[in-house]
Amino acid sequence: MKNFNFAELIFRFFRTILAKWMKTTVQGGSPQELGLDPEQPVLYAVRVPSLSAQLVIDQECTTRGLPSIRSPMPQFGEKRSYITLNQRKGSIFNKRLVPAPSERLIKSIETLNENEDLDLQVIPVTVIWGRNPDKEKSLFRSLFSDNWSSAGKFQQFLTVLIHGRDTLVQFSKPISLRSIMKENESAEKTARKIQRILRVHQRRSREAIVGPDLSHRRTLMRSLLHSNVMRQAIKREAEEHNITIEKAEKRALKYADELASNMSYSTIRFLEVILSWVWNKIYDGIEINHLDNLEKVARGNTVIYVPCHRSHIDYLLLSFLLYQNGYQTPHIAAGINLNLPIVGSILRRGGAFFMRRSFKGNPLYSSLFNEYMHNMFTRGFSVEYFVEGGRSRTGRTLSPKAGVLAMTVRSFLRDSKKPIKFMPVHVGYEKILEGNTYLGELRGANKEKESVGVLFKALKHLKNSFGKVRVNFGNAIDLKTELDAFRPGWRDEDLGEDFRPEWLNEFVDQLANRVVTHINSSASVNPINLIAAVLLSTPKQALSEHVLVDQLNRLKRLMVDTPYSELVTLPEGNGADWVKYAEDMKAISRKEHSLGDIILTDETQAVLLTYYRNSILHLLAIPSLIATLCSNNPSIERGYVVRLCRWIYPYLRNELFIHWNEDQVEANVNLWIDHLVDQGLIKLDGNCLLSPEAGSSEFVTLQLTAQPITATMERYYIAIELLRIRGKGVLDAKELEKQATAMAERLSILHGLNAPEFFDKALFRGLINILLERGVITQAEDETLHFDEQIDTIADDARLILNSQVRHSILQVTRHSPEEEQETKEAEKVEDA
């Protein structure tokens, strides 16, 4: 009877009651994840003395096989195995948290000093009741939500009652107490140092989950207006428009109200419930890969999420997944066109802030937006924006628009205390929600404006299946590291007015390209991507089923044996599984035949498949280029292939954002050649590469492998031929872009190419810029384009890359413009008369 512990019985009773009410998400909650040494005791470190926190932590410890928080530490003479880092001080109505020295920790350090074989594993534990930024606009939420202030016992009771079913418990990696101790340092001093480390760790963990302390929205907006930058901007606005300071302030406040987010925990929680239902209705599952890349940078940094932009689903999905996995919900830069009635308010409360498409001619708005972003970055809020600007209508990663990125860099130059990490995210869809809309736009229809009506029309899609979504987190980019590499002495420079040094634009362009390249490096490949890549490589977008299955298996083997990057993910299963899956998704059609079924596409399916093929085009570029050279030339020297690939690579890299630099190309080309030889797709005879026997399955595979890059090479050849035919000093860059686009569109119509992006002006613009950068063409003072005999060599090389039929078609189109053909027809009519 003497061992009866009434206090322990009461503790277990309350733990049981609470466990029936609680619904927890646990991170790092197993001995294996934490990497615990079973031979050494454990000490838990919690933020504040809280019975409810002890109850939930002890319950999770019991459930997951961890030592109990209530268990004694006999080696240290202690009855409990936890410490609190802070104590509540002050009056009953004004509690605040203050650092508190732990006698238990001091005593443990003294014991370790006396026993060299002993260590103590300290595990920081964070408990968050609900996950919301602290906002004081709602009295109810400010009283009962778990925030950065210190809650009294009654408030804590209500917090547990209201938010207990949305609780996160995070066990962090253990810290070896002995590894921090120093010789001849007192136990008290060591304890203070350790508790500081633990408090910083707790603060960063909490920021990563709930975000920094966030004040009332209107207070935030007014604080922006009182900054030195905005006071000057308001003064300039008043002077330029001859209005009073008060009126200029009201104008700025109106802009701020239009811009600022109003993140609301209740809205986020509501959206989580709604979106969970939506995702379950339209998707077969959501797969997350490489989340550990985010875990490495989430604490102590301002994280800027930079996803690819394929759909409006992107930002909803990313915020949903971050919230579900215990990370801070980001503030999202959204176009002002999404600030629709009702919808805009919901998005704003979900974290969206709305930006105008153009700041031109409105310096007050520009200054306010810059100041708002600076406030977000320096206070540690996670932010999300799309460097591509708008959604990709073709499936390709678009050339980055660096406006918001430039604001980010300028903010960091102004105040670099808070590290900024860019987190690239690739979202891969098997079927895009806006597919039919994109299809209409690619065929020439006007872009459909966002409206409430469009939103309601989208609800009909809830009855359809859109396959699986894969979200891959890439390798983070550290802004300070990038600046140090580009401009080592940037900290000591005069960065100019508004922090716009002369080298800023060049650095931002480089950084923007690095961001989109990192997005591509974390691409997810799905069955629809692979089927699109194979079927669209055939003349009629049709193949016998058994041939298609074989080609799909070969393509996957190519990607597995010579991976583009360690972050690229490939689908499970094999070609037969994928064909059946794509057929169920209605991405392809089947024609039954006595000699074997044929898999084919109709016109609509073919155009949509180009979208999914384009999403992985950068993964296929190098092997496709090698296959092109080998399939068009029965015998070609290996060194010549390598040289041509090195010459062409900058154009491919510019268009497809491939991650290898030019010094790495030769090694990668040789690696791919060796792999294609190993697969029997090309043969090696001394220093010559030979194509396989015509008609063989290997030759068919080689030709199919060659096709994905053909359109890029055709665009390249169209531009070169136009320059040669028109002559030096005739065309300027804009006119070359215009004529090349028209020629490509004509070629597409004449030859039935189901790839609308083939005549995309932006692709020709990028090609012309690279030709200028590499000195292939030059620009005179009158902006006309000039070139030398080097262009003839390039045209000769094109004969090795494009087959004779394609070259002939391009020559026909480029040598006879529509105007010339019209003149010829009119002349023929006159002669006939």
UniProtKB/TrEMBL annotation:
A motif (HXXXXD motif) lies at residues 308-313. It comes from the Bacteria. SUPFAM superfamilies: Glycerol-3-phosphate (1)-acyltransferase. It catalyses: sn-glycerol 3-phosphate + an acyl-CoA = a 1-acyl-sn-glycero-3-phosphate + CoA. It is found in: Cell membrane. Residues 303-430 form the Phospholipid/glycerol acyltransferase domain. InterPro entries: GPAT/DHAPAT, GPAT/DHAPAT_C, GPAT/DHAPAT_LPLAT, GPAT_PlsB, Plipid/glycerol_acylTrfase. CDD domains: LPLAT_DHAPAT-like. Its main location: membrane. It is a peripheral membrane protein. Pathway: Phospholipid metabolism; CDP-diacylglycerol biosynthesis; CDP-diacylglycerol from sn-glycerol 3-phosphate: step 1/3; Lipid metabolism. Its EC number is 2.3.1.15. Keywords: Acyltransferase, Cell membrane, Coiled coil, Lipid biosynthesis, Lipid metabolism, Membrane, Phospholipid biosynthesis, Phospholipid metabolism, Transferase. Residues 816-833 have a biased composition (Basic and acidic residues). Residues 813-833 are annotated as: Disordered. Residues 177-204, 231-258 form a coiled coil. Belongs to the GPAT/DAPAT family. The HXXXXD motif is essential for acyltransferase activity and may constitute the binding site for the phosphate moiety of the glycerol-3-phosphate. PANTHER family: DIHYDROXYACETONE PHOSPHATE ACYLTRANSFERASE (PTHR12563:SF17), GLYCEROL-3-PHOSPHATE ACYLTRANSFERASE (PTHR12563). This is Glycerol-3-phosphate acyltransferase. The lineage of its organism: Bacteria, Pseudomonadati, Pseudomonadota, Gammaproteobacteria, Oceanospirillales.
